[in-house]
Each structure stands twice: as C-alpha cells, then as structure tokens.
Amino acid sequence: MKDMKEAHALGPDRVRAEELLARYAGLTEGERAELVMLFRKKLSAMDVAMIASADDLAPGYRQLKADHLERVTPRDFVNVALMVVALAGPVLAIAYWYS
Predict the structure, then answer these.
(1) In whole angstroms, what is the distance from residue 37 CA to residue 2 CA?
(2) Could you read off the pLDDT of 21-33 as tens digits, one per residue?
C-alpha cells in the first residue's frame, strides 16, 4: 500500500487479500484457506481484476489460481448434474406427454 488513506479506500477484504498474496509461498494452511475464501466469496470482480493486474501481486495470484481457484471440485460436478436434470427433465416430460 502506498499510504494508509489508500488502504482504507480499498476495503478490509481486499487489503487482507493483498497482504496474504504478497507472501503466498510462506502462508500457513489457515492463511491459505482464508485467502481462497476471500477470492471465492468476498472479493468483487473489480477487486480480483485489480489484484491480478498489480505487477507485484500477479505472480502470487497466478500461483493461487493454478493451485486452488481453477480446480474442478466435486461440488462443480453436482452443480452440472443439477443443471442437466433441470434442463432435460422438462424436455423429457413434454416428450413423454405428447408421445
């Protein structure tokens, strides 16, 4: 941060994410989990874009993204299955009704 005035303008979640990301390689497991939670749940798209475009934070962000944010999780598969059922169910019901 350039000064405290700028830090207060950013918001506490973004400031915390930048602090953690600056020392990404040396984070504890708890800090890493906090950082992932910040990126998945709390930071806005603008915050993420600003962090990703910062030259000093970009390497840590790319590593975090590769390690944790771009992985396909079992929850993602469940979401896809629910979407398929939600979209295919009515189509199959209509086809059955008119057959």
Answers:
(1) 25
(2) 999 989 999 999 9
- End-to-end CA distance of the chain: give it in Å, rounded: 66
Overall pTM > 0.70: no
Find how far residue 54's CA is from the centre of its chain: 17
Buried b (16+ CB within 10 A) or exposed e, 53-78: eeeebeebbeebeeeeeeeeeeeeee
Which helix (H) or strand (E) is 8 found in, with range? helix 4-10
Contacts of 18-21 spanning 24+ positions with Cβ under 8 A: 18/51, 18/54, 18/57, 21/51, 21/57, 21/60, 21/61, 21/64
Tokens of residue 49, six digits: 């874009």
